[in-house]
Amino acid sequence: MALLGLFLSSLAACGKTEPRPRNAILISIDTLRPDFLSCYGHPRETSPALDALAARGVRFTDVTAAAPWTLPSHATMLTGLYPRSHGVKSHETRLSASIETLAEALVAGGFQTFAAVNTHNIGAPQFQLQQGFERFEYVSETHKDAKGRIQTPNTGPEAVAAAQKFLGARQREKPFFLFLHLYDAHTDFTPKKEWKETFVEPYSGKITGRSQQLHGIRNRNERLDEGSLRFLRQMYEAEIRQVDELLADFFAWLRSEGLYDQTLIVVTSDHGEEFEEHGGLLHGRSEYQEVMHVPLIVCGPGVPAGRVVETAVHGVDVTPTILAALGVRSKQAHDGLDLAPAWRGGTLPARTFFGEADHNNMVNGKEVSDIKKMVRRGNEKLLYDTHTRESELFDLDGDPLEKNNLAAAQPARATELLAELERYLATSVRGESIAPPTESEQSLLDALGYGGGLDDEDQGTGDARQ
User: Fold this and answer.
1) Range of the domain at 262
2) What is the DSSP string of 209-260?
3) Can you give the CATH number for the domain in which 63 is found?
4) How many domains does the chain have?
5) How many Cα atoms occupy the beta-carbon half-sphere of 185 within 13 Å?
6) Which of 267, 268, 364, 422 has a Cα-to-Cα distance from 411 of 20 to 30 A?
């Protein structure tokens, strides 16, 4: 009888189907570098909640963003298309209604769709990233102080509260998809006292961590002293810890609602942040790894616990991965892939990855966009400037910090990758044009670090050096 029981158990195991999540939550933490998360090896404990999530699921170590700033990268995340395919590359373009979003595919598949987002670059209706969301709330990342200046405090708690309100009022007989975007790791750096005291050493310089101030320093081609850079990095750590605390509370709420164990949870980011690794601050202008390398953690029913995937993947894979996990088909082809084979012990096809759609670069004293391009095949990565026609070639395996430009030493490899990039760009679509930002919108973008405006207190910080 014991042998018969073992035989029947084996048959049941062979016929067992992988559990499928009922719901899905996509969390995008704006401006989050993986090398600042403790689960990715950062020496300080910045992310205990995300560490626990990664231990419960799959952590991808090598993930490339589609673009170095929020709008085009999220358009890719929410469509499964590269910027060359969806055309959203600037504040003067929008997502076409003819492109099916992740949310639209899920609505067609019977899901309720909700979004709580925390930035103008996703929430402003003119960009049309709200397509397919039945309930969509933009929680502004800004307010004006007593002097009328635009500030960006930590408004993540309001975004999470909006998400919980949506889920609390959902139709419980139907599955749901929630997109939650959090801005708190982005400048302005304004961590609360507890985390500032934990992570930030005493600092007497004039750097504040305000976006506008850092944008001005960048535009003047100034360099910060090491003490100021250390202050910025530590303020960034404190902000990440604060976001992580917020997520810990949100995950606890999901458990209390009985949703945590039946929901696919995907956490990623749109881009990273520069701390002068290649001379720059903020993000948006370059496509080095400090900006283009992002985290990706997936957990939930059907996803193995504690798995680490080192295969290179891309932000363009987020939409097809979520759709496949939920068993929903899209009516449009995607540029990305379902990543499930990588965590099931299989392999993914060899691919070439691309990045584009920079902005705020300066040419002859004017701001220009979409001149910096990236192509990556295996560990070889080429950066190309369409204005200067200059190339940089890096071997990420031996040179992960991109310090040794091999373009001159290996011209044949650089030429081959450039030809691959040109073939990719040849199929680019023109994005749907919209009116440029209004004066008030531009003032907001300036304050967020997406324009050239400076206020009086940001003129000459006193602690920057040439």
Assistant:
1) 20-352+439-465
2) --HHHHHHHHHTT-EE-HHHHHHHHHHHHHHHHHHHHHHHHHHHHHHHTT-G
3) 3.40.720.10
4) 1
5) 31
6) 364
